[in-house]
Specification:
Helices cover 30% and strands 14% of the residues. By secondary structure, the protein is α/β, with parallel strands linked by helices.
Length: 111
Amino acid sequence: MTEVSPQEAQGLAAGAGGAFLLDVREAEEVAAGHAPGSVHVALATLVDNIASLPRDRRIVCICRSGARSGRAAQILAKQGFDAVNMSGGMNAWAAAGLDVEAADGTPGRVI
C-alpha cells in the first residue's frame, strides 16, 4: 500500500481537482479536529458509502494514527480506487504544524 506524508497529502489536495481527503475516524474525532477540506466517512460505513466517493481523483485516507486509514486505503484499492494512506494520521498532521479545524471552523485538536 502506498503511503504519503501529511505534507504530501496537503500538497496533493491543493487546488481544484486535487486529491480527495477522506477522514475515516469516528464523528466525534472529526468534529474535534480534522484536515480542512476533508470529507468524513467512518471506516465502519465505508463500504456502504463507497458509491459516493470520486473515482476520478486520488483518495488520501486519514485517521488518527494511520491504522484505520490503512485499512480504508486497502478496501478502496481492491475496489479499483486510486487510494493511499496518510502515514501517521492526524497526529502527524498536527505535529507537522498543518492546520487542524473543528466542526465549527475554529482551530481544532486531535483526539
